[in-house]
Design a protein that fits this description.
about 240 residues; 2 domains; two-stranded antiparallel sheet; Protein MgtC; MgtC-like_C
């Protein structure tokens, strides 16, 4: 009676698996080192484990049922890494962090999957492009981010916040909406929140659009002159 573990041992196939996993390990290390250097949520070890895991699953699929099985395994790797990437995405107020790290994990899985499918050249190429996206494109990103925003061409979400007495709230709200309507600004949402017994917070959010800052400043100035208004201001955030 022969043990299946020994009967299935093929030195050439084992060497092929070793090359695939080693390639995935090296490429995952290169990708992860860049993330670790920048102190991102998913760093060196995470990228390596994703790459090696993807390579291992694809390699096992090929060993068991050839290319057809490898394709099936790859589809599960893609969806599985999607769930893993969602774990590193965090929302902090209006900001969302971790999207780039999640995409990097996806790229690391792609490199590992290619390595597991014995596409070593393709695996190296994928890793090079992932690294280039995270390093070579950084100066271009910084250059674009340093450019001043043009309110007339940038699609964004604008919000007005007014602190007003409860007695004057209906009048102030109507006046603010009238000012916005006169400038053809569409209102997406209006909310009222109690700040204290003597003050309410009125929040008016415009639909994603382009706006002129001088017009918004004029509206704020007009609202601030109304009785019962303690404070009025507007803010902008770029659309997702």
């Amino acid at each position: 009676m022969r043990l299946a573990a020994f009967s299935n041992l093929d030195l050439l196939q084992f060497l092929d698996t070793l090359i695939s996993l080693t390639t995935a390990f090296v490429l995952g290390t290169l990708i992860g080192a860049e993330r670790q250097w920048r102190q991102r949520t998913a760093g060196l070890r995470t990228a390596v484990l994703v790459a090696v895991g993807a390579a291992a699953f694809v390699d096992i699929g090929m060993r068991l049922n050839g290319n057809a099985s490898a394709v099936t395994v790859l589809s599960y790797v893609v969806s599985g890494v999607g769930f893993l990437g969602a774990g590193v995405i965090m929302k902090e107020g209006l900001n969302i962090r971790g999207l780039n790290t999640a995409a990097t994990l996806w790229g690391s899985a792609a490199a590992g999957g290619a390595a597991g499918a014995d596409l070593i050249g393709e695996a190296v190429t994928i890793a090079v492009f992932v690294l280039a996206a995270n390093t070579a494109l950084r100066p271009l990103v910084d250059l674009i981010n340093r450019q001043p925003l043009d309110e007339t061409t940038t699609e964004a979400t604008y919000e007005f916040r007014v602190t007003v007495s409860p007695e004057e709230m209906p009048v102030v709200r109507t006046a603010l909406l009238d000012h916005l309507d006169a400038k053809s600004y569409a209102v997406r949402q209006t909310e009222t929140e109690e700040q204290s017994e003597e003050a309410l917070d009125l929040s008016v959010t415009l639909a994603g659009s382009s706006a002129k800052s001088d017009e918004l400043d004029a509206i704020v100035a007009a609202i601030e002159q109304m009785p019962g208004v303690e404070h009025a201001a507007w803010s902008m955030r770029t659309a997702d």
